[in-house]
Amino acid sequence: MHSYVRISLLLLVKLALCVLGDNPCVYIGTQGIINLTLVGDSHGEPAFKDYGQSGMPDYYRYSYNPCYSFNELNCINSAGCQVAKDKSYSLTIGTQNSTSWIVSASGAASLVYKAGPKTMIVDLQCVDGPNQLIVNGEKTINEYHMTLQSKCACWNGCLPPKPVSNACFYIHPQLGTINLTSIGKTNGKPRFKDIKSTLLSSSLWSYNPCFQFTEYNCQNAAACQIDRKSKLANIIGEQDNVQWENIYTNPTIIYHTANRQRSLSVELICNDNKDASNDLEVIGEISGNEFYMKLRSKCACWNGCPSNKPSSSKFPLIVCGIGIIAIIFFVSLISCLIWSKPHSTLTRITKRYIIDEKAPILINDAKLIKH
Questions:
Q1: How far apart are CA 77 and CA 249, in angstroms?
Q2: Is the distance from CB of 47 to CB of 129 less than 8 angstroms?
Q3: What residue stretches are annotated with the MRH domain (predicted)?
Q4: Of 148, 82, 81, 141, which is closest to residue 111 (Cα–Cα)?
Q5: pLDDT value of residue 252
Q6: Which end of the chain is more exposed for a tag (fewer CB within 10 A), N or C?
Q7: Beta strand residue intervals within 20-142, DSSP E
Q8: Cα separations (Å) of 147 from 73, 120, 185?
Q9: Torsion angle of C-alpha atoms 300, 301, 307, 311, degrees rounded to 10
């Protein structure tokens, strides 16, 4: 019965986190920046290869690479890999694109990676010394634990010597950080939906900073152009094809489509009023397949939005809340049943049936007598 309570508590923790995929390399928080780009190997090899579990027989070896994907045997595009000692099999236990950061109020940070039913949790430990990996192994079924010791695991321990950027943020060694994470929605919908352009057009425009969205036939997009009548939509920019320009004057994010036939420029305009809303002005198509928008926000200012918290709709929050309440009720009910029920000795009256001692489920109709 105790195993039920343990499983329920684990579910409670996972529901309480309600975390979606984050950037696997860099975390920007109120305490500063954790930057793992200098720890990971960017050439397709794991920075930590074939490490044995600490204090245990090394039936399995584990490989891990922060920030960048690697390949090893059957582990393809992996963040973590479990390999049999004799190399007879290998299994991906985490991928970079599933990464979630968990940061406590005290600043303790962990990375959580997923791969199907597998979960890999890497605790970061701030150490002023060489990079080290401690493999703690599979603590529960399908849940693997490691500890990464590094100077780069410290807040502001490895500030990038040169600018680092992606679709969510731009980190400059001197100027600071522009972080759009908190503006973008994470529920697959655009923050700015069906906006009219200032130029005369029969189209509407949708845009979501940082995270992909889908609208009509415009799928996995950063921005879409939608025909008002037919509702046919075209992708005009993707989150995976981004570059930043005009950093010292008017920072601008340029999104391209995969075939680079269309491009969208979003000029970021700093509005340092802390109560100001995020506003999008759509200029429209300024030339053939080139589009222009202006985003006014506090988060467009240098160090305007240090937090990594993404925005979302209220629905996932409500679901998380209901789930947490339900699990708390379930755990409380089970606990009451365990501790309020009189202890008794159970005697089997037949060997034909089986009782699972670890998870007390009666298989078939085994009969029990109380003494």
A1: 38
A2: no
A3: 166-303
A4: 148
A5: 97
A6: C
A7: 26-29, 32-35, 48-52, 60-64, 70-72, 75-78, 80-84, 90-94, 100-103, 109-115, 118-126, 132-140
A8: 23, 11, 31
A9: -20
Is residue 228 classed as helix, strand or coil in its secondary structure? Answer: coil
Place of tokens 């990375």: 111
Question: Band of the pLDDT at 309, cuts 50, 70, 90?
Answer: low
Residue 90 and residue 74 in contact, taking contact as beta carbons nearer than 8 Å: yes
List, for residues 142-182, the tens digit of each pLDDT value. Answer: 999 999 999 999 999 998 778 888 899 998 888 889 999 99
d(CA 198, CA 284): 7
Fold of 164-300: Cation-dependent Mannose-6-phosphate Receptor; Chain A (2.70.130)
Higher-confidence residue: 114 or 361? 114
The Cα–Cα gap between 356 and 162 comes to 59
Q: Read off the pLDDT of each residue in 211-238 and give the average, rounded to a whole number.
A: 93
Q: What angle do CA 280, 244, 114 make, to 5 degrees?
A: 90
Looking at residue 364, its pLDDT comes to: 37
* Cβ–Cβ under 8 Å, residues 23 and 99: yes
Q: Which of 98, 296, 326, 66 is nearest to 192 (CA)?
A: 296
CATH number belonging to domain 21-159: 2.70.130.10
Distance CA 177, CA 170 (A): 6
CA distances, 61 to each of 4, 57, 80, 157 (Å): 30, 10, 11, 29
Residue 328, helix vs strand vs coil: helix
- Residue 236: its H or E element: strand 233-237
| Collapsed DSSP state (helix, strand, coil) of residue 184 | coil
pLDDT in tens, 228-280: 889 899 999 999 899 999 998 899 999 999 888 999 999 999 998 878 899 99
Q: Please, are residues 82 and 2 in contact by the beta-carbon 8 Å criterion?
A: no
> Where in the chain are all domains bearing CATH 2.70.130.10?
21-159, 164-300
- Which letter, b or e, does each residue of 135-145 get, where b requires 16 or more Cβ atoms within 10 Å of its Cβ? bbbbeeeebbb
